[in-house]
Prior knowledge:
Layout: E1 5-11, H1 16-32, E2 38-44, E3 56-57, H2 58-66, H3 70-86, E4 98-99, H4 103-114, H5 118-131, H6 139-148, H7 153-160, H8 163-178, E5 186-189, E6 193-196, H9 201-214
Parallel strand pairs: 1-2
Antiparallel strand pairs: 1-5, 3-4, 5-6
Helix pairs in contact: 1-9, 4-5, 4-7, 5-6
Amino acid sequence: MAKKIKIDVVSDVVCPWCAVGYKRLEQAIKEMGIQDQIELEWQPFELNPHMPIEGQDLGEHIAEKYGSTREQQKESQERLTEFGAELDFKFDYFEGMRMVNTFDAHVLLEYAHEQGKQTELKIRLLNAFFGERKDVSKREVLKQELEAVGLNATEAFAVLDNKEARNKVKDTEKYWHSLGVNSVPTVVFNKKSAVTGAQPVTVFKQVLTELLNEQ
Length: 215
């Protein structure tokens, strides 16, 4: 049995380019027919670790953080919506959309990893935030999404309230920062090489082909 390619995807659940990047990576893997040769794990990254519990208006947040005008934001959102449609991922930007805190979501994703359902939960949370107008910082929303992928919400919330589990996620975030990961998505292959940003399908295919040839 050939050794699997380990892929770590460092990302956040409120990062639109992370959704696009993953869907393109997924497409590359499917088109190459190598699903059984890949071991994929999601790694935590908070775009806004200090985001307060009430969140912030998205337009205001992006203007403050990146200096984008409303017009530039609208163009970017239209482009993302088009990219998403090509990849069967729905972006539904709306007036009053808010940026939210994602730390709890990352703790639950770590729990989901232990249960073998990490990718399912990650995709659910991305869909919930970008396509279903849901606040993924709220516990009732997190409960719905856990149950949607067949996870035990009571057990998951016990982990969520566990100090050790929370610290483990903080330590993991620090680890990736210490390796120089400061933008997402960052896709790391076999802990040796990485690509950042939502690369085209062809780029992912090229990297995967090289890795398969090495093995």
